[in-house]
Design goal:
Structural class: alpha/beta
Largest sheet: 8 strands, mixed
Distance between the termini: 47 Å
Number of helices: 19
Helix content: 40-55%
Radius of gyration: 24 Å
Number of domains: 2
Strand order of the largest sheet: 1-9-8-7-2-4-6-10
């Protein structure tokens, strides 16, 4: 079995690529952990998602973790940080991909030093070792706000002379989107366990996420007093999980009585239309009418039709096609990809990108919008 050795820009890019595509686990051991801005460029933002087991093993006695990074990591409720005295190893375990390297989790290491790493093809022993160290380590409850200058200058200069480029990383709305996706999925799981789903919608071909999307739409627009509409900004206070389940079941029964298949099949038709048009054939120049058909499927644009006209009049169809193809054909969708795509299409914003993702990947990504957010807040979810 061949040995994979990584260094320079290949080391930087490989780690970020695997972190962005992580499905279950991101475990990191590093005695020195640098400033949050650089750390986010090195490992991205996928660690924030609720289904990722994110563990950070460091050494706050003879090493350090920057205060801003500690604060940023701990802002996610799923993060665990522990300290092991005299830790010197640098390990990056991403699902079943394992990197043993000389590089600490600092901008200096990954951009300004000659570091090397080896990819371990069968990481079972490394996983076992990490777990043993993890059990010995102590939970970190606080870190100093500043570091001794000599230590900081040696291991984490704020602007070291660069040898390699750290990947771009843009935090903000797109990261919030994925957090909301996870919250939607959590709600959908509860909804399914409480209701058993609407069998007519199942028979009609709606996925769980599409059924929940309709459920939220019913509460926001169709139910007589539109109960979720007042929760655009604040969550509703529900005293217990049992109350939450009772409310879900009550409104589910009312929704089920009002569901009319002939009035809702447009949802399935819209999904099929988008998937029939996309992706565009590589190198082709799609007709303007095809672009318009996709745009016409997006709720956020139908509410403001002038934006459809602006998109069509201010962008080359081939440029739109390339950007959309890149979005839906990527191995994994991440915040930087979304930002790059909307940057390629004038007047095509975050909401449009989110909705396009939800329509195309109807069984993988939910549709995140004001309606779904209000619905989750109505049932006591803190969005």
């Amino acid at each position: 079995m061949s040995t994979i050795i990584l260094s320079g820009q290949h080391l930087v890019n490989a780690l970020r690529e695997h972190c962005d595509q992580a499905k279950e686990r991101i475990w990191i051991a590093s005695p020195y952990i640098g400033n949050f801005k650089d750390v986010q460029k090195i490992i991205g933002g996928n660690w924030m998602r609720s289904h990722i087991d994110f563990r950070v093993l460091t050494d706050v006695e003879s090493g350090f973790i920057r205060h801003d990074t500690y604060t940023g990591f701990m802002a996610s409720p799923h993060t665990e940080i522990r300290s092991l005295f005299n830790l010197h190893a640098k390990i990056y375990l991403i699902d079943d991909w394992c990197l043993l390297t000389s590089a600490n989790l600092t901008g200096m290491a990954f951009s300004a030093r000659h570091e090397v790493g080896q990819v371990v093809s069968a990481p079972e022993q490394v996983v076992k070792l990490f777990d043993q160290w993890w059990k010995k380590a102590q939970a970190v409850s606080s870190v100093p706000k500043s570091l001794p200058k000599s230590l900081a200058d040696r291991e984490d200069l704020p602007k070291p002379k660069g040898l390699y480029n750290l990947p771009q990383y843009t935090s903000g709305a797109s990261d919030q989107f994925f957090k909301k996706c996870d919250q939607f999925k959590e709600f959908a799981s509860l909804y399914e366990s409480v209701t058993g789903r609407n069998q007519q919608m199942v028979d009609d071909g709606f996925t769980l996420y599409e059924e929940v999307d309709y459920f939220f739409y019913y509460l926001y627009s169709n139910y007589p007093d539109k109960p979720s509409k007042e929760y655009k900004e604040r969550k509703r206070s529900l005293t217990s999980g049992e109350v939450k389940q009772e409310k879900i079941l009550r409104y589910f029964e009312l929704m089920s009585m009002s569901y009319a298949p002939e009035e809702e099949h447009w949802r399935l038709d819209r999904r099929k239309r988008i998937r029939k048009i996309l992706p565009f054939k590589a190198g082709s120049s799609p007709r303007k009418e095809e672009i318009e058909k996709v745009l016409d499927c997006l709720h956020c644009l139908r509410s403001y039709p002038i934006n459809i006209t602006r998109i069509l009049n201010n962008n080359n169809p081939r440029s739109i096609a390339r950007a959309w193809n890149r979005l839906i054909q990527a191995p994994s969708i991440n915040s930087q990809l979304i930002k790059e795509v909307i940057g390629k299409i004038k007047y095509f914003g975050m909401s449009s990108a989110y909705e396009l993702i939800g329509w195309y990947y109807y069984d993988t990504y939910p549709k995140i919008n004001r309606v779904s957010e209000s619905g989750m807040r109505f049932f006591g979810f803190d969005i």
